[in-house]
Amino acid sequence: MATPGQFGDAVANAALLVVSVALATGAALLLSWIRAPIAQAARLSKEVDPPQENSFEDPNAPDDRTKTYVGELLLKGEKVDHLSCCFRLARRVFETLGEEKATLSLTVVIPAYNEEERILVTLKDTVAFLESKKRQDPSFSYEILVVDDCSQDATVDVVMREVKTHSVERIRLLRLQKNHGKGGAIRKGVMRARGERVLFADADNATEIRDLDKLAQAMDQAQEGGKTGVIVCGSRAHLEEQAIAKRNPLRNLLMHGFHLIVTTLCVKNVRDTQCGFKLFDRTAARVLFAPMHIERWAFDVELLYLASISGMAEVAVQWTEVPGSKLSVISATLTMLREIVLIRLCYTLGIWKQSDGGFRLAKRISTQ
N or C: which end of the chain has fewer CB within 10 A? Predict the structure, then answer.
């Protein structure tokens, strides 16, 4: 029979074993959590886009097979107006950022995930504003490139109606074959840009497209003397005091902690790294988007970290809180903090390189 001393030792040993197992399990889970984005980035750096993402549908043009089929029906004297729902649409090949010479003045990239309720207003406002600029300056040309990140609602239908109305010369839809997150969707859109300048903007119209003029003016000034590789970041930093007064204290604490870590590890000269309204010249877009390793919330920080040696300006923009955000604050903050640490660590140790992803600048191959 065990003595009280022996029993106490057994309990202590059992407790020590439980704590050791818990610590080992926690350490393993933490290591796995940290390693996950590194492994994902390694796969991403070699991942070639699916053939379906090399082209886009033109709702105003049936493909050759449909034309032949309709022609045969007409020769037989049959009516074909009721068969329009069976038409196959022509597919056209995207251009690529690998083509150094731009064919348009501006590309606006809008990532979209389940945005059926909000994206229509954004598209209408953007088209109206850019058409007014074109009337004022006939040499100005543009495209809007919407990137659907596997939406599960009617986002695609809403966008395609606008494409049909304005033509694929004004609006194009890139449909991703799997969900990549906001950063991945923007990267894939930018890599297909035809513009000399590339703006990415949020689908919710939180920043008015009219603020593009402020960013463009700052870029014009930065490019005086022939400088290229310029980025201009929209900024909500001027609204910070007002936002702090309205926000939940936990969100304010997370925000200040996030800013401190970003400033310490990655980006020192931009106060608002997360504003979804940034303008790049074509050179900057080619250099920064091809090697991107982060596809989700911290992708802005990686872009600006890579751009830290180039010219950057930060311009205040009007910003409005729009209902319907899909951001989970605590989850997104933890994920971003992990990715920010990895951005500095992986680039410093040479695990990630700015030369990664050069294959993304290759020309597109036509596929149907």
Answer: N
